[in-house]
Specification:
The chain is an alpha/beta fold. Helix content is about 55%, strand content about 15%. Strands 8-9-11-12-13-14-15-16 form an 8-stranded mixed beta barrel, surrounded by 5 helices. A 7-stranded mixed β-sheet has the order 1-2-4-5-3-6-7, sandwiched between helices. Strand 9 and strand 10 form a beta hairpin. The chain is elongated.
Length: about 650
């Protein structure tokens, strides 16, 4: 029944080069996928099966043609190899259908319908091939007619699956990002063209190789540096490469950033309608635009200005469309618009994501901002400050001249003199001069540089206290602020005690200011640190009482020495009698429990009189002095020990 000579000669020419390339490429794809980070999704599993089917098709085809040259090869084996070859190709097309139903989010009912049709076609083709090979009757007794018959089977099967895939691609074209669909369409068209050219030249060497082109497009567009198929965005690493390329080629880019706080805070997935809106928005207005997803709630649209000479008008049109969509979704947003600088203006590396986030911090929600030169100048200062903070932290030089100690003298109502002060941190940098703490302290905390700065301030404060005492000045104490990040250092207490001891001053000359802990872990940490240091004589201040949430139960459990009433309470006490009574009762309660009460933010004579009547022991504020360099405390402290100076 099976005649080996039927397979030995064929009209179609064949060389193994095409199939060898396919096997090599499948091995390379497997290596690249294992070596790179790939989301292990269901579509990725289907993609791997597609690679496996291509490899099987190519390998079986090579064996088939090697064995067909031998008259000793059994006909059953040759028929089995031919069936395996074509079944693998049809299975690849069927898997491509499955891949489409996943990536285009086809609903379950329609997905089952498409897959059932494809499975039925695959089963029918397989049955036909098995039956035809088994019967082998009629006019198909020579190699030429037999090869033509098998090619006809392949053509029918190929067109069957291609029609279904093209129909799906057209029907669900709005569910996948346009650039991805265009890439897959272009690669599939090249594959089809290769098959036509192959047939025209009576070749059969590159049939399996034609299947590589769609696989390459999927690997590149989806699984390598993937687009988010829901919204059509590329990840942040793609944005960085995009910027570098255009910087190198001196091409200006327009950047439009959309920030949705609601989705950035909790990483929620966008609803389907919003996904569709973002997909349409990202590809509708600007020519050659690419959307990048920076975080779950922040996206940046980038487009070359040279390709969009009318980009100002396009921006207006896009924002007009956005306003209409905002009426539908009602989500809080921030939009930042800017263009990239020239390499000369950037002066080295320039992080546009950080620039946008920097601008956003000072924007109200539901607002749009074009980045002016002033913002860029402020951002440069911001980057410079971070760089200097990093250098200070790395060097850990306790005498670093960039870190300056300022003080605000505190008036002692009991003695009528200045004998305490609060140490304040300042930065004095070459390029920007004296930096306000509201600018650099949050950055120091964010980048974990604060601990070194705090220890520099403590060291310099202790050294100044030593000098003041050596010159005969009476110093009751100077307080130094520490953050919760400082307290989390296991060596915090040891470092404090060693610094004070090295400077040769009594521990009671230093106080530590802390803000109220916000959670149980921090509360226990504050309690532990106070317990460790209190025995050495160090005093503790509770800073900013009256701001945020004040937990009296926790305050009562912590052995603070001084409670600092925030300026907000000073202001409130001057607005009406009820608030003054409330603040006064709070101060009285602390006073009767043997806490000292310090009012900060005292700026007028009226503030002073009112606070003095509300159980104050200490007053601090611009009424007495603005912050001054610590060396100028000599202008406030007394050389003779004041009457009543004893604790």
């Amino acid at each position: 029944m099976f005649k080996p000579e039927a397979f030995t000669a064929a009209t179609l020419e064949y060389t193994q080069i095409g199939d060898i390339i396919v096997v090599a490429m499948c091995i390379l794809f497997t290596f690249l996928l294992r070596a790179s980070f790939v989301n292990r999704t269901r579509s990725y599993a289907v993609f791997k099966l597609m690679l496996a089917m291509m490899a099987i098709a190519a390998y079986s085809n090579m064996i088939l043609h090697v064995l067909s040259d031998s008259a000793k090869a059994p006909g059953v084996l040759l028929s089995a190899l031919r069936i395996l070859h074509y079944t693998s190709l049809f299975s690849n097309l069927f898997l491509f259908m499955i891949y489409f139903t996943m990536t285009m989010h086809v609903d379950a009912r329609h997905s089952r319908r498409y897959l059932a049709t494809g499975a039925a076609g695959l089963a029918g083709l397989l049955i036909y091939m098995v039956v035809e090979s088994t019967i082998n009757t009629g006019r198909l007794h020579n190699a030429q007619t037999r090869a033509q018959a098998w090619m006809q089977v392949f053509t029918v099967g190929y067109l069957f699956f291609a029609c279904i895939i093209v129909y799906m691609a057209f029907r669900y074209r709005g569910r996948i990002y346009r650039q991805v669909s265009l890439g897959v369409l272009a690669s599939s068209s090249i594959a089809f063209l290769l098959l036509i050219l192959q047939a025209y030249h009576s070749q059969s060497s590159y049939t399996v190789a034609s299947f590589l082109f769609p696989a390459i497009s999927l690997l590149y567009l989806v699984h390598a540096n993937p687009y988010d198929l829901d919204i059509g965005a590329v990840n942040i690493s793609g944005f960085e490469d995009f910027i570098k390329y255009h910087r190198k080629n001196v091409k200006e880019l327009l950047l439009m950033s959309l920030f949705l706080p609601e989705y950035d805070e909790n990483g929620r997935k966008y609803p389907a309608e919003l996904q569709w809106t973002i997909r349409q928005f990202s590809s509708r207005f600007f020519r050659g635009a690419v959307l990048f997803q920076v975080t779950s709630g922040r996206m940046i649209l980038a487009a070359e200005t040279a390709k969009n000479p009318d980009f100002e008008e396009t921006i207006r049109n896009a924002l007009g469309k956005f306003d209409k969509e905002h009426e539908k979704f009602r989500l809080d947003y921030k939009i930042v618009i800017t263009t990239t600088l020239t390499p000369e203006q950037e002066d080295g590396e320039f992080n546009y994501v950080n620039l946008i986030q920097f601008v956003e911090e000072n924007m109200p929600v539901n607002s749009i901002r074009r980045v002016p030169e002033g913002d860029i100048a402020e951002y440069r200062d911001y980057c410079y400050i971070i760089s200097e903070l990093g250098d200070i932290s790395a060097k850990q030089n306790m005498d670093d001249e960039r870190v300056q100690v300022y003080c605000q003298p505190v008036f002692n109502l009991r003695t009528g003199h200045y004998d305490t002060a609060e140490a304040l941190m300042r930065l004095d940098l070459d390029k920007v001069g004296l930096v306000n703490p509201t600018k650099f302290i949050p950055l120091a905390e964010e980048y974990s540089y604060i601990s070194v700065l705090s220890m520099i301030i403590l060291t310099k404060t202790c050294e100044q206290v030593r000098q003041l005492m050596d010159e005969g000045f009476f110093v009751r104490r100077i307080s130094v602020n520490f953050s919760m990040l400082d307290l989390r250092d296991p060596a915090f207490s040891q470092n404090i005690e060693e610094t004070i001891r090295k400077c040769g001053i009594p521990s009671e000359k230093i106080a530590i200011e802390l803000t109220e802990s916000q959670n149980e872990r921090d509360f226990m940490l504050v309690k532990e640190r106070i317990s460790e240091l209190r025995e050495s004589g160090i005093k503790f201040y509770l800073d900013d009482f009256g701001t945020g949430y004040s937990n009296f139960d926790r305050i009562m459990q912590l052995p603070f020495d001084i409670i600092k009433f925030d300026r907000s309470l000073v202001i409130a006490s001057g607005t009406d009698a009820e608030k003054r009574t409330m603040v006064s009762y709070l101060a009285q309660m602390f006073s009767e429990m043997h806490y000292s009460v310090l009012y900060e933010g005292v700026e007028t004579e009226s503030d002073q009189e009112r606070c003095a009547a509300m159980y104050a022991e200490y007053l601090q504020g611009y009424k007495f002095s603005a912050p001054i360099p610590i060396t100028k405390l000599r202008d406030f402290f007394q050389k003779a020990v004041p009457v009543g100076a004893a604790e």
